[in-house]
Design goal:
Radius of gyration of chain B: 23 Å
CATH class of the largest domain in chain B: Alpha Beta
Structural class of chain A: mainly alpha
Shape of chain A: globular
Order of helices and strands of chain A: HHHHHHHHHHHHH
Number of strands of chain A: 0
Number of helices of chain B: 9
CATH superfamily of one domain in chain A: MetI-like
Strand content of chain B: 25-35%
Oligomer: heterodimer
Largest interface: A-B, 18 and 23 residues
Order of helices and strands of chain B: EEEHEEEHHHEHEHEEHHEEEEEEHEE
Helix content of chain B: 25-40%
Shape of chain B: elongated
Strand content of chain A: under 5%
CATH architecture of one domain in chain A: Orthogonal Bundle
Radius of gyration of chain A: 22 Å
Largest sheet of chain B: 6 strands, mixed
Strand order of the largest sheet of chain B: 6-7-8-3-9-10
CATH class of one domain in chain A: Mainly Alpha
Chain lengths: ~260, ~325
């Protein structure tokens, strides 16, 4: 605790300790007060299993969509010089700092029953996005895509551009080089982006409930069920929370090499 | 008309024009910052430039990199780290649509020719510098290019490794049949491998000729130093002479004042069976002089000794510096 510069002062140590306590205490409390004896019974309940399944399904589909759209977008930002690139990057990052509930309202404005795109779409096809499982996925993609783009763009920037040049001298088209060189070299970053997107989707609450509502079986995901249960059935809320906590820790373990690197 | 006719300009880096015939191996030499790498990268399309690179009847600068029919060997190889040696070499043929089995067969063939056939299954991280450079050369040759560009392929290799690779490279480039540009900072490369030497200085072509021509009649101090030759500039006239033709005395020798200089011994190093002196001439550039160890002992030639150096007029080659 002491080094040659002297003891760390108490006026720094005490706030640091308080901060640690604030971060750790609620999680410890959650684990301690969880209904461990009822865990099996809780996990077997219909509503809970439905929400869990829907959460995993929507998060996985959203992640796949995020990768399919985010990888080309990240490549464009990292490898192609075009006017407006900085503006595009800024636009992509906005949802990252946007309050999720605002994201939900924005989605309603665009794809809601009377939205800019939603209304003509409904009139043409009779189908609309809100309050459907597809709506949940749309909300997840909206909030998770920036994570994927930022993560992959970083990986593409650090994966050396010169390999693309080497591929070009060997006769590769840009598409061929993208498939055979760029993506394999950036794969760790792509995987990390996918894991981040999945974790973000799994925990997504604000945008989802605003845009897609809370119908059991179609739009009720784990976070929305937790929110509903906390007053009516606190035991179920805690069980669900434990499951999400475990998944979060698993994500942390997967990403440990990227986030938990000490200098 | 020449097979290859180059005239390129990379702003602030290089502005060079020269021609070459099929089968030429051109060593590009010059001091650091002379624009050697910029020149080959411009030809490859990896840095922006203006001008033209006419190969037969095509202007390569108007074509995308992948259609230029060039093979590039990079100083740091740039072998794809996620592919083994075999798939690295097969990459070019595969990218050009050759069927997988055939591309791999061709890769094996080229790895054998570069004598790294037994390393086919290794990834670049498991290869030594010399092995990786052999794989890189195989990869460039496997695309059957018209123009082979090698950017300091020997740099960073152990001296022994570089020597054996150099001898083989000379043979491969001779068999290659296309035109090769070899960027190097080693005079030995220019002498053992090249049929032509292009001397760049501050981004411009200072000299372009056969290795004999350039090494016997260098026009830049850089090449003079590289080949270990004394070159004196006298207006437009250059006078070159070998260090072994230089006589060292303690008193002023007779003869023309043009061919004798007073100076101070600055460096003494072994050079083959002789000793090589660097003499600080009082009013001129340093001169190199080779003396026998016996003579050095007899005259007491140690650092700081005041001496006269002279050369017979018959040992001096006089030539005119090309106008630039």
């Amino acid at each position: 605790m002491s080094d040659t510069l002297g003891r760390p002062p108490a006026r720094l140590l005490i706030p640091a300790a308080l901060g640690t306590l604030l971060l750790v205490l609620p999680l410890v409390a959650l684990v301690l007060t969880a209904p461990w004896s009822l865990l099996g019974e809780q996990l077997a309940s219909e509503a809970l299993r439905e929400a869990m399944w829907l959460s995993v399904l929507t998060a996985t589909v959203a992640t796949a969509i995020c990768l399919a759209l985010g990888l080309p977008l990240a490549w464009l930002l990292a490898r192609v010089d075009f006017p407006g690139r900085r503006i595009l990057r800024t636009l992509v990052i906005v949802p990252l700092v946007l309050p999720p509930v605002v994201a939900g309202v924005a989605l309603v404005s665009a794809f809601g029953r009377t939205g800019v795109i939603g209304e003509p779409l409904r009139e043409a096809t009779g189908w609309s996005l809100p309050y459907t499982t597809a709506g949940v996925i749309a909300a997840h993609v909206f909030v998770s895509l920036p994570f994927v783009v930022i993560s992959i763009e970083g990986a593409l920037r650090s994966a050396h551009k010169e390999y693309d040049a080497a591929a070009a001298t060997l006769g590769a088209t840009r598409w061929h080089a993208f498939r055979t060189v760029t993506v394999p070299l950036a794969l760790p970053g792509i995987m990390a982006g996918g894991v981040l997107a999945w974790a973000r989707s799994l925990g997504e609450f604000g945008a989802t409930i605003t845009f897609a509502g809370n119908y059991p079986g179609t739009t009720q995901t784990m976070p929305t069920l937790i929110y509903l249960s906390i007053n009516s059935d606190p035991e179920a809320a805690k069980t669900l929370s434990l499951v999400l906590l475990a998944l979060s820790l698993a994500v942390l373990v997967v990403l440990r090499d990227r986030w938990l690197v000490t200098p | 008309m020449s097979a290859l006719s180059i005239s390129v300009e990379v702003p602030d880096r290089v502005s060079a024009a020269f021609t070459a015939e099929r089968g030429d191996v051109i060593a590009v030499i010059g001091p650091n910052g002379a624009g050697k790498s910029s020149l080959v990268k411009a030809i490859a399309g990896l840095v922006a430039c203006s001008g033209s690179v006419r190969l037969d009847d095509r202007d390569l600068l108007r074509l995308p990199v992948r259609d230029r029919s060039i093979g590039m060997v990079f100083q740091d190889q740039l072998l794809f780290p996620h592919l083994d040696a075999r798939h690295n070499v097969a990459y070019g043929p595969r990218a050009r649509g050759v069927r997988r089995a055939e591309a791999l067969r061709s890769a094996d063939h080229w790895l054998q020719r570069l004598r790294v056939g037994d390393l086919a299954a290794r990834r670049p991280g498991e290869l030594s510098g010399g092995q990786a450079q052999r794989v890189a050369i195989a990869r460039a040759l496997a695309t059957d290019p018209d123009l082979l560009l090698l950017d300091e392929p020997m740099t960073g290799l152990d001296v022994g490794v570089a020597t054996s690779l150099r001898i083989e490279l000379a043979r491969h480039l001779a068999e290659f049949g296309g035109i090769s540009l070899l960027v190097t900072h080693d005079a030995l490369d220019a002498l053992t491998v090249a049929t032509r030497v292009l001397v760049l200085d501050e981004g411009r072509v200072a000299q372009y000729g056969t290795p004999d021509d350039v090494t016997q009649r260098p026009v830049t101090d850089h090449v003079a130093r590289l080949v270990g030759l004394n070159v004196l500039r006298d207006g437009d006239e250059l006078r070159a002479f070998d260090p072994s033709a230089v006589t060292v005395d303690l008193v002023a020798p007779s003869g023309s004042a043009r061919n004798r200089w007073p100076g101070t011994v600055a460096v003494v190093t072994p050079h083959g069976a002789a000793l090589r002196l660097v003499v600080h001439v009082h009013d001129g550039p340093d001169l190199l002089a080779d003396v026998t160890p016996a003579a050095a002992t007899e005259l007491g030639l140690s650092v700081g000794r005041d001496v006269w150096v002279s050369v017979k007029q018959t040992s001096v080659r006089s030539y005119t510096a090309p106008a630039n």
